[in-house]
């Protein structure tokens, strides 16, 4: 009985270490891939309509994008639009709730 418990505890410890490793790996790599777009058009839409634009990897969907932005920047998103950009990236246009 004790052997089974030890095996289970080792399994869960390894599992937790793997998840921590992947979280750190994702944080390091995503910071390079996710970038804000700073152009005249993006700045104008930011000033007039409170919209922001970011580039994300293509494998992100809308739910993942909104969760990422809410966790990292601590903002509330009211609208989110995405476009595929050069078949490699996604442009995300999102409106932030007024402060």
Explain what the structure shows:
This protein is α+β, with helices and mostly antiparallel strands. The chain has three helices and four strands, in the order αβαβαββ. The longest helix has 32 residues.
Percentage beta strand: 25-35%
On the 0 to 100 scale, the average pLDDT is 75
**SSE succession:** HEHEHEE
Number of strands: 4
Helical amount among residues, as a percent range? 40-55%
* Rg estimate, integer Å: 19 Å
Largest sheet: 4 strands, antiparallel
Shape: globular
Strand order, main sheet: write it out.
1-2-4-3
Q: State the low-pLDDT regions, or none.
A: none
N-to-C terminal Cα separation, in Å?
A: 57 Å
By secondary-structure content and strand pairing, the structural class works out as alpha+beta
Q: Count the helices. How many?
A: 3
Which helices and strands occur, and which strands form pairs?
Elements: H1 2-33, E1 35-36, H2 40-49, E2 51-57, H3 62-73, E3 77-85, E4 89-96
Antiparallel strand pairs: 1-2, 2-4, 3-4
Summarize this structure briefly.
55% of the residues lie in helices and 26% in strands. It is built from three helices and four strands, in the order αβαβαββ.
Which keywords apply here?
99 residues, 4 strands, 3 helices, 55% helix, four-stranded antiparallel beta sheet, alpha+beta, single chain, globular
């Amino acid at each position: 009985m004790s052997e089974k418990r030890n095996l289970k505890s080792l399994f869960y410890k390894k599992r937790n270490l793997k998840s921590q490793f992947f979280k750190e790996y994702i944080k390091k790599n995503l910071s390079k891939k996710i970038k804000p777009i700073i152009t005249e058009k993006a700045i104008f839409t930011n000033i007039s309509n409170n919209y922001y634009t970011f580039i994300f990897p293509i494998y992100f969907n809308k739910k993942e994008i909104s969760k990422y932005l809410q966790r990292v920047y601590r903002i509330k998103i009211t609208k989110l639009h995405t476009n595929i950009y050069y078949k490699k990236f996604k442009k995300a246009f999102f409106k932030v709730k007024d402060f």
